[in-house]
Predict the structure.
Amino acid sequence: MKGVYTQLRLNGEPRRYLSVALLAWVATAALAEDAEFVLTIQDHAFTPKEVSLPAGRKVRLKVVNMDTTPAEFESKSLGREKVIPGKSTGIINLGSLTPGSYAFVEEHHENEAAAQGTIVVK
């Protein structure tokens, strides 16, 4: 694999090491992947009620609506709103979040406790 290794001399002996560029690329690729978390809606209730997300990373929230009727994920504190048709999945991309708590609701049933939840960013 030409270019993968860098040859250095240590005490006059050749030593081969992975190149710094390759190591940087691997680290960047690992950080570039969005973390994915799943949130389920069934009987207008969220499972889990609290989702813990990492701070400072892009996150993909996958919302699975198990009900036959549409549901609307809404979080005013995150500035996100998405209608998810019955028996389908919606993806909500969240940018890099700062630590804190972010409330969300299933808007069509927001007065029911089961239709409310919290995202906790640590």
